[in-house]
Amino acid sequence: MSLEFLWYIPNQVTPGHRGEPVTADHNSLETLRTQAQTLEKYGWKGALIGTGWGRPDTLTVATALAAATTSFEPLIAIRPGYWRPANFASAAATLDHLSGGRVRVNIVSGKDNLGAYGETEGDQADRYARTKEFLQLVRKLWTEENVTYRGEYYQVTDSTVAPRIIRRAGRPHPKLYFGGASEAAERVAATEADVQLFWGEPLEGVRERIERLRALSTQLGRAHAPLEFGLRVTTFVRDTTEQAWADAEAKVAEMADNQGAPPQNPHRQTAVGQQRLLDLAARGEVLDDNLYTAPGRFGGGGAGTTWLVGSPEDVAKSLRKYRDLGITHFVLSDTPYLREIERQGNQLLPLLGE
Questions:
Q1: Of the N and C termini of the chain, which has fewer Cβ atoms inside 10 Å?
Q2: pTM here?
């Protein structure tokens, strides 16, 4: 299996994301460009760019970073509703053309402030039904011409995206990543996504979900290439095991002292996948060999809820165990972002070379 390692660019208006130093230029073009260029230098494939209403537009940021790099591949997180599928398919195809085929897309269906950009929230079933149509239509527009589509949420007539997506080896179009742990989300992933992203759950939970999604793909008649799997997790790496755990515990203690700050995404607390992570703390502070659950008790959210903690060898060993389950796409991060891009690029990635 060919493994791919990406990083994370938080794309925040508010500084201080997950312990990042608070600076006035934290989301300036210079800062983000430096991160992207450093990712190239240290062997990372690219980076996930976070999304949400009230944050910089991800496609705009991705375009700026693609223009400043030569191999960096932005994994552009976007939300149906914020984008209509034909508009997005056209914009992404243009960036894919200009960047030489470097676009990846992460579809996010979790709750957001949809009313702020003219959409209605809907219940979970509505959100995932709309996402399914969004994925179907974007893929059609990238691979077919003169598309006519009549869905419940989206319709187009004789639509052709230009410039056309160029088919590349093993890549008929930009990969479509997707997350979500609810039953509705898994049915969408099993039939329409290219890569299902998991957060940092214990190995047994990931194994069960991979088996279920593969079975669902067969049951629901998946028409695309087999579903691939990815892991989005915080990797807390230090030179030694002892130093990693000392620093991780100190950071969690600081989080506990500062608890009470409003969550960066209040909607996330109701997500099934987020609740699965928060529930892990009841099973123990450390699961498997080194999956640290304490951050979730003191404000860690999303990929910051659980951390893989240890020396480069410890963390590489854990990531190889996820690989053995079928994970081939890894989206890692820790803060400060630039320091950890370099540290983990130097110490961790060489241990994971295939």
A1: C
A2: 0.94
